[in-house]
Design a protein that fits this description.
Protein name: Gamma-butyrobetaine hydroxylase-like N-terminal domain-containing protein
CATH class: Alpha Beta
Helix content: 25-40%
InterPro entries: GBBH-like_N, GBBH-like_N_sf
Shape: globular
GO molecular function, one term: metal ion binding
Strand content: 25-35%
Keywords: Iron, Metal-binding
Radius of gyration: 15 Å
Structural class: alpha+beta
CATH topology: NE0471 N-terminal domain-like
Length: 125
Amino acid sequence: MTTDANADAANWPRELRLAPDKSALTITFDDGKSFTLSAEYLRVESPSAEVQGHAPHEKVTVPGKRRVKITELHPVGSYAIRPMFDDGHSTGIYAWPVLRAMGEEEEARFGAYLEALTEKGLSRD
C-alpha cells in the first residue's frame, strides 16, 4: 500500500481561527490553501451520524441554523476537531481531510443544502 505524502501534507492544518463573533472558522492548510467556513455550514453538514445518517438516503436536512454559533473547539487527537455549537450539537468529528473537502466543495454542498430546504419547505431561520 502506498500513500501520497503530498496529499497528506496538504490536509494538515497550519492554523485554525474562530471568528471573534463565533460565526465562522478559518482553516489554513500547510499548502497555503485557506477556507473560511460559516458555523451554519459546519453545523448543517456535520459529519455526525445524527446529520449524515448511516447511508446517503438517511441524511437529515437541518433547518433554522442561519444564526448558529460555535461556542468551543475541542481537539480530537492530532487528526480532528469537535466543535460545540450553541444549539447543543457536539457529536461531529471533523478530521482534517473532511474540513479540506468541506472547504473545496462548499459552493456545491451549501447549494445542495439550500435546494433541499426549498424542496422540503424548510427555512434557514
